[in-house]
Amino acid sequence: MNPLSSPLLSDLYQFTMLQSYLEQDMQETAVFELFIRKLPPGRNFMVAAGLEELLDFLENLEFSLEELDWLAPRFHPSFIDYLKQFRFSGDVHAMPEGTLFFPHEPFLRITAPLPQAQLIESRIINLLHFETLIASKAARSVLIAPDKLLVDFGMRRAHGAEAALLAARASYLAGFSGTATVLAGALYDIPLFGTMAHSYIQAHVDESTAFERFAYSNPDNVVLLIDTYDTEAAARKVVTLAPKLAADHININGVRLDSGDLAAHAHNVRHILDQGGLNNTTIFASGNLDEYKLQTLLSAKAPIDGFGIGTALDVSMDAPAFDCAYKLQEYAGKPRRKRSEGKATWPGRKQVYRYYTPDGELSHDIVALVENDPYDGQQLLEPVMLAGQRIHPKRPLHDIRQLTLAGYTRLPKAMSALETATAYPVTISPALQDLAKQLDAEMMSR
Amino acid sequence: MNPLSSPLLSDLYQFTMLQSYLEQDMQETAVFELFIRKLPPGRNFMVAAGLEELLDFLENLEFSLEELDWLAPRFHPSFIDYLKQFRFSGDVHAMPEGTLFFPHEPFLRITAPLPQAQLIESRIINLLHFETLIASKAARSVLIAPDKLLVDFGMRRAHGAEAALLAARASYLAGFSGTATVLAGALYDIPLFGTMAHSYIQAHVDESTAFERFAYSNPDNVVLLIDTYDTEAAARKVVTLAPKLAADHININGVRLDSGDLAAHAHNVRHILDQGGLNNTTIFASGNLDEYKLQTLLSAKAPIDGFGIGTALDVSMDAPAFDCAYKLQEYAGKPRRKRSEGKATWPGRKQVYRYYTPDGELSHDIVALVENDPYDGQQLLEPVMLAGQRIHPKRPLHDIRQLTLAGYTRLPKAMSALETATAYPVTISPALQDLAKQLDAEMMSR
């Protein structure tokens, strides 16, 4: 059983419901949509991400013999027979990865026989929620520090291996420069960055020796960690070492700060390096950073050229989850509506139309029904899979990243800031509102 | 490249440092320890978890041809040759899973040739940090609601698939009753629980039909979701349906509430069920629950028998990460110390000794050097792997769970509460304090 692609990566109730659907032969077409109910605190928009992984999952979804054997004693034989030939044969419409979106807007729509659309719910949310969460977090650092090198340093405190890999992907997609996670570089072709750890310094007899040995071992990427004992003293050791390395044609590309008052140390270190003629040696900072600390450092004009952002990014520290739901909006041609308190949904299959100002900035969106409810805005949901097959080849991650960056240029200024801006206008079309009322009336009359 | 077991699941700097260590033939024994600097907000203790997954990772660590091919253009040929025959041949000492522990206490110690101990750092933290995070969060619900059925419902908003699986494992280990995640049941033999989704209700022509069909399809586990439209009205439909099902020897085991004022609905529904003779039908609640909401519901004497806890558990919502570090404490027989501002470490290889009161409650711990610093308390760190081989067979998860539950009985009352208690006394032995001073003095004199 492959922990990342098994169809058992689902909640038990999906199987229980499936068995019941099949007994009743309820296999007509269902339409489910994925949307968020509200923005996480502090966010002004979300960045759609995770679609390519989801399409991979759907294309390859089948039960292995081992999985069927495990299920067999727990379910009816006829249900197991059904699962033996289970494949996803439905359609997927989605906002392209990198699209900016807002509450109440479906960013994914599944159209498939009910049992299929139901079984995949848990993994759909699991994948899209997480990558969207991280892309939306990463976007904030990119927007306030567009000219800085931003690197994902979060693998160690990400929630497991898949989280680390997807966080590297989602943050790169959102405009980061790269990651330190080697496997993410290998799997997704994301640029890799790295320096050295404190243990490297500690393992040597002294700091200067450690610096020198590292430089000779890695002459093309000499970034020296200078905070193990005394930051400014270490910066002076770097200056002392530089001529010897220069004689061997080795440049000291950068130094890294990882503790203490980063702004103060950066000013001191910049001064020491410049006095020593190392004007081209950059300063890289890390250590419990997030977009708020970045903003403080930028305001203090700290001479820092790049930032490693770890834990706060990979766990989306200030908002480690958001409220999203995958809901049945239509079954057997009939719109459906959930009315639970505080959790009601907009029924029917829907499209999101986007409008821009004459200057090309985001103006407003309209959520409308797909049929008989026409608008002329940009249609954000596109077909990406039909009858279980991807329509387009997998989109290169670099291209998605360009799309995201282009999207940022259309954000009104207030929405690019860390502070909460006025909510972006998302309107529910009159026809959709009427449909909801009509369904409520039908329900009351039963 | 297996995303969960690849040796590329590491930070780039580990490889860069390794290459340099090998050039310098720095392959003497290193001792690294994993510890936390401080408790997450609101926590009174941590629950160690994740060790078995780590030992699996270490036992199987090797580079595939594909991985070596990917590395080859990026590193020296002699380094690639070294990686070809790379295996973990070191020792692992650890607190058994389920052990309660505190800041400054090493809960894992790696003793291995420096390059080996270094390469595995990123995945060690990645695995142990996350499972310990979730076990420590889950423990809080278990302690305040020891007589309730507690089920992990968090897969969909866990950070990827591995996080969902490890969260199911860690919460069960910490005393939860089970999980809804099917694959976690299959892989770890964790009891599975599940009911139905709103979509099941919505897909049927009406709620009563949905209830009836579900009961006939799943006669052994009839738990009906009653909040899709109107909770109390649905409870009355359940009562109406009961005699028909009873005639076919089907019991309605429970109902589930998922929205609104859970305490008020539970009181109303309990009354409706009891009036209808369904005294044995339990009430299960879910919907954005965490230990604080549990406490509120328990205080309100809400007649709820079990709780599904999802997002807040699987992402450890109030503390999605904690400050832990894997630090070099000894190399080539010599203790090492990092002194970075706010991040200094206690040097040398250490043991944690635990003392109990005459009543068997936790009294205090002492962190001391392994050699020449004897104490008579319970030694918390045990050897679990020697020369790269597990000492014991994999411990069954049920046994670990029993160990955790036994550990809770030794907690002083204040530490079992959700509120922050007085910090548990952890003392650094005088010999260890002397060693730190001595290393600082040596450093200053250089």
From TrEMBL, chains A, B:
PANTHER family linked: NICOTINATE PHOSPHORIBOSYLTRANSFERASE
Gene3D superfamilies reported in the protein's UniProt record: Aldolase class I, nicotinate phosphoribosyltransferase
InterPro entries in UniProt: Aldolase_TIM, N/Namide_PRibTrfase, NAPRTase_C, NAPRTase_N, Nic_PRibTrfase-Fam, Nic_PRibTrfase_pncB, Nicotinate_pribotase-like_C
Biological source species: Nitrosomonas communis
One Pfam short name: NAPRTase
Any one of the GO CC terms: cytosol
Protein name per UniProt: Nicotinate phosphoribosyltransferase
Pathway assignment: Cofactor biosynthesis; NAD(+) biosynthesis; nicotinate D-ribonucleotide from nicotinate: step 1/1
